[in-house]
Backbone:
């Protein structure tokens, strides 16, 4: 239940969250269009990926505030890991059905709970475990047999690898934030870690320049990702983390609709069930983790109050 005293506008939060999910799906669609315009293969992915990073870096430079070099080693590592995840995700968009790539990659929130349980020995609650099992079953169904041309083992593998990279980045980012790093600092290194080596590789191969159409779609990816993040951050001002985090998983549903409209991707029933289970598992994990954090915070406050009164 949303605390209306703390979060007075849950409906606005829900609309903004869904808008953010739609922007994420539109960004994925823009990348697929750009890659299709160039051709197929890893080279096409690298070309679009490079220009999307360039436009993203330009948008970051226009945002308020300066980049700090404090904790630059940690920011560099987190940025490099996030860039690796982005590259794997973009490759999966060319090798898997749009909805499958988006949904499997979005499972990074679920994987972050698993990683936290293993790395910092943070034991998940019963609801979290049930939600994790739902998401796992959904991933198995998504990775199962598909219709011709819908996806490939490489696409599914890249999506899951991207989810692992993003989950690791999320945990790393929390550690860096506690040490004083800002999101802009991490994003700066993320863009530079990708644009510099990939741009150099493409320049050596003489494949750096692309058509205006590809540039437009690459810019669209950067803009949609920026709008998605802005919508989600704004939504958190009006609604709880559980509400916002749950609705963001709707990106997989939007991906299914956009993939069907743009590329005539018709998914099998088992795949649609798998997508629904991953979304349900992700939303359930978000709610369970938020509830566990609230319970822990209340317990700490109660213990502190008892000590103070004593």
Residues:
């Amino acid at each position: 239940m949303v605390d209306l005293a703390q979060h007075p506008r849950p409906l606005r939060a829900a609309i903004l969250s869904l808008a953010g999910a739609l922007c994420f799906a539109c960004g994925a669609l823009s990348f697929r269009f750009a890659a299709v315009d160039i051709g197929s293969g890893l080279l096409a992915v690298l070309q679009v990926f490079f220009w999307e990073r360039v436009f993203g870096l330009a948008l970051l430079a226009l945002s308020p505030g300066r980049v700090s070099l404090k904790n630059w080693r940690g920011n560099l590592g987190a940025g490099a890991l996030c860039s690796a995840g982005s590259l794997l995700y973009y490759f999966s968009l060319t090798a898997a059905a749009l909805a499958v790539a988006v949904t499997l990659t979005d499972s990074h929130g679920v994987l972050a709970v698993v990683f936290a349980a293993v790395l910092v020995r943070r034991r998940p609650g019963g609801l979290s475990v049930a939600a994790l099992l739902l998401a796992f079953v959904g991933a198995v169904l998504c990775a199962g047999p598909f219709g011709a041309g819908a996806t490939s083992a490489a696409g599914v593998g890249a999506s899951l690898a991207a989810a692992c990279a993003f989950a690791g980045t999320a945990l790393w980012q929390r550690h860096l934030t506690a040490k004083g790093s800002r999101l802009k600092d991490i994003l700066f290194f993320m863009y530079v870690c990708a644009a510099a080596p990939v741009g150099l590789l493409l320049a050596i191969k003489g494949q750096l320049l692309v058509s205006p159409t590809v540039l437009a779609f690459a810019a669209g990816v950067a803009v949609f990702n920026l709008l998605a993040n802005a919508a989600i951050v704004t939504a958190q001002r009006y609604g709880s983390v559980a509400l916002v985090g749950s609705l963001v998983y709707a990106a997989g549903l939007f991906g299914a609709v956009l993939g069907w409209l743009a590329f005539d991707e018709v998914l099998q029933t088992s795949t649609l069930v798998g997508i629904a289970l991953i979304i349900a598992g992700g939303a359930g994990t978000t709610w369970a983790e938020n509830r566990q954090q609230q319970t822990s915070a209340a317990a700490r406050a109660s213990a502190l109050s008892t000590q103070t009164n004593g």
